[in-house]
Amino acid sequence: MQGSAVGTAGEVRVTYWVKNKDGVKKTTTPWHDVNPKANFTRLFKLTHLTPGTSYRLLAEGRATKNDQPSIKVQGTFKTAPAKNQTSPVSFTVVTGQDYNRRDDKDNGHQIFREMLKLNPSFFVHTGDVVYYDRPAPWAKDEMLAHFKWNSTYALPFQRKFHNNIASYFMRDDHDITKNDSWPGKDYGDLTWGRGLEIFREQTGLPELPYRTIRWGKDLQIWLVAGRQYRSPNSSADSPEKTIWGAKQKQWLFESVKNSDAAFRLLISPTPIVGPDRGRKNDNHANAGFTHEGDEIRKFVSQQKNMFIICGDRHWQYVSVDPKTSVREYSCGPTSNQHAGGWSQKNVSKMHQYLNVKGGFLNVEISRENGVPHARFKHCGVDGQVYHEDVQVLK
Q1: In percent, how much of the chain has pLDDT > 70?
Q2: First-residue to last-residue Cα distance in the chain
Q3: 51 burial class (0-12, 13-18, 19+ CB within 10 angstroms)?
Q4: What is the pLDDT of residues 177-205, one digit of tens each?
Q5: CA neighbor of 248 nearest in space, from 222, 270, 224, 214
Q6: Which residues pair with 355 in a beta bridge?
Q7: 378 in the same domain as 289
């Protein structure tokens, strides 16, 4: 199959050091075997990193301990500024990345070329990184699931981007097993549990999939898990029906209240405000999760300078909840071929911006005359800014 690559046994190591600093000490990990049961991958945890610093990285591979390195991959990444450090921060957000709906057949999805031009501090993929339940091939077993990851991240645009930008990955349904799935929903021979493991092997997602990261004095983000702890979509709505699970929800409420960041951004794989299609029953904007959706929207509305960013929907929007005034930004899919599911003519009272197009969301946090500003820019696949929404610290 096109894009197929067979893994092989071997050893890998990583060296990293501060960028653009003469005489800097380099840190090199020991050589470690790749894991043939994990698509021949190996995860490394880099330690003793300095906040607010740019690093270089060299990954090397060799066949055996007696061989010289036969492959090298170089890259760069930035670390988050300390929580008391005032520093401009920018990041980009995407969703819905299907190999067969890429807009450059040979190179991949062109948004990665355009995002790299912006040199963001970091990147967030909100999920549906690959589509197991889309054709060519339908990935109903582990081998084909690995094929989907290998073919996607062999694409030149993706490789160059990720070699240079630190990234956070979030799971959704299509990159665990299949559409609108919940725990126990296998896809052919690809089990739910193995789907969770494969995602972690490929992206380095922590064992606890929800987390919060502080990026300096003016920004803190929350990345929530929307699949691992949820109730069946088919269950009747009730105060107990959940997408996040009680433990994750309590963690979010408490950590948000304890944050003194200027802007607090909740990033969700799926919508919380919407609007969404009436027949859907898979997210907090749908009637099937009204109780928990109302609870979350009410909580966010009680916080100052807190906004929601979501993925999953195949169109871009900025919306405001009529009951709570909570504001949500949907980033849109990775290509125009992937856009759809909503009519451009269907502009609701909730919409501040609507565009049934592919692209990405670019968020910039900076200070103007000493006052923190957040700029939310919806961009097209060619990098064109379609819409800009500016929030000033209140």
Answers
A1: 100
A2: 54
A3: middle
A4: 999 999 999 999 999 999 999 999 999 99
A5: 224
A6: 316
A7: yes
Q: Cα–Cα distance between 238 and 185 in angstroms, integer?
A: 22
Pair 38, 118 in one domain: no
Percent of the chain whose predicted confidence (pLDDT) is above 90: 96
Average pLDDT, the chain: 97
CB distance 336 to 111 below 8 Å: no
Residue ending a domain, choose from 49, 79, 109: 79
Same domain, 98 and 72: no
| Burial (0-12, 13-18, 19+ Cβ within 10 Å), 65 | exposed
Q: How far is CA 179 from the centre of its chain?
A: 18
Q: Say which amino acid occupies 13.
A: R
Position 5 scores a pLDDT of 80
Residue 217 dihedral angles phi and psi, to the nearest 5°: -70, -25
Alpha helices in the chain (DSSP H): 111-118, 142-152, 156-162, 192-203, 246-257, 290-301
Structure tokens at 378: 């919806």
Segment holding 123, helix H or strand E? strand 122-125
The pLDDT of residue 2 is 78
Decide if 389 contacts 376 (C-beta within 8 A). yes
Residue 22 has pLDDT above 80, yes or no: no
